[in-house]
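Fold these two proteins, one after the other.
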Amino acid sequence: MECFHRCLMDMFKERREASLHWSSDVLVPSAESRMLAAIAKSRGHRVYRANEAEFEVMDSEGNVVVDVEKRSCLCGRWEVYGLPCSHAVGALLSCGEDVYEYAESCFTMESYRRTYGDAIEPVSDNVEWREKVLKIEGGGDGIRTPKVTGGARKGRRRIRPVDDGDRVKRLVHCSRCQQTGHFRTTCIAPM
């Protein structure tokens, strides 16, 4: 656990410091590069506007429908990756929209810096833990441990279906006495 704790401390520190040197103010670098690739690819698309929110985008592979209000594209990349695909970028640029506003908030620099902004607090050696626990237990202000209760798990009660009259009951047959209404294991007939 201490190894994980140290790794997390290092990771948070490295990511916090690295984000201070990034040039983009809107998206994290990986999302920024993906967005720039989509912008470059969208230049080869022809965009036709159907109404305020829907567009038909033609590329070399065929026609694709883009709905800007629902943030969806027929290719499915916008929904999966959370960033507008090249079809959506083409549609957004054709109507003068800012494509960066249509990226999911988890890709923004603000969200990234907020995620790694708080530091993982260092933890002292476990020798000091025992001293603090003893002080807390003596004062009565400490962490209360749960009560230990004995006993086995309680069995589950079977919820039986309500007999609505439509259900046909199966007729059971005893293999020992050849009578109906019971099984061999519950048979009381003499042998």
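Now the second one:
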Amino acid sequence: MDIRGTTSPDARRPATGLSGLQAEQQPVLGAFSVAGFPDERAGVDVLVAYARSGASLLEVGAPAADPWLDGPAIAAAHRQVRRAGYGIGVTLATVRQVSALTGKPVIVMSYWATVLAYGPERAADQLAASGAAGCLIPDVPPESVPAWTAAAAQAGISAPLLAAREASAAELLATCRAATGFVYAPAVAGQRTGYSDGLDLDSLSSFVASVRRAAPTTPVLTGIGISTPALAAGVVRRPGVAGVVIGSPLIRALADGGVGKAAGLVAEFAAAVARPR
């Protein structure tokens, strides 16, 4: 399934999505950074470097006042860019530049409060015009999911959703069937990004199987707790996992050693998840 979905008339480039990546039988490696971190220019440069280092999907975090899903490293990045006055404008500018420079699918990760304040239809339209492939919102209220996914479809972008490990069977079914582009399945239950105390791979496999039963044709990406290349390698070899998204380790590397260190870590993750051709 193409991660972008229907092509927007305002799109700046051709649709690029998961279909081609999966045809190569390679797991998707998503690399996350917060728009405007550590500054607006470097925020673009690092995502371009990630693409050149082996990331096949780029995820841009929209600056948020309350990034409740994010652990200390990413939350600190949000605070820094918010203090600098960055918001949806820097997100759109980052997406526009990164999508044009890399040709990779770019997904925005935004909290519902940000999208709601901007206006869901307006947000979807502006994201499409900037070249975004989609927008992952982990906390869309259930009653707002139909309107949001309709707005995204109308704009020509995908609307991935988070499948909560704690959800009831009915809630999980509804989320997985509504998601477009991919379903984001946390690798651990009840944790924020940056968790590093180990993974129960059998439990993850069981959860992914439940997601796949609910939405058999929608790719499943996972993240949270995948703190090392070795863990990523183990996760992508589990049945039904189309790929992983790495966030906190890259934010820490970027803060500690700049673009070069963070891009080097992406290269390590890319080598770890790659399958022999």
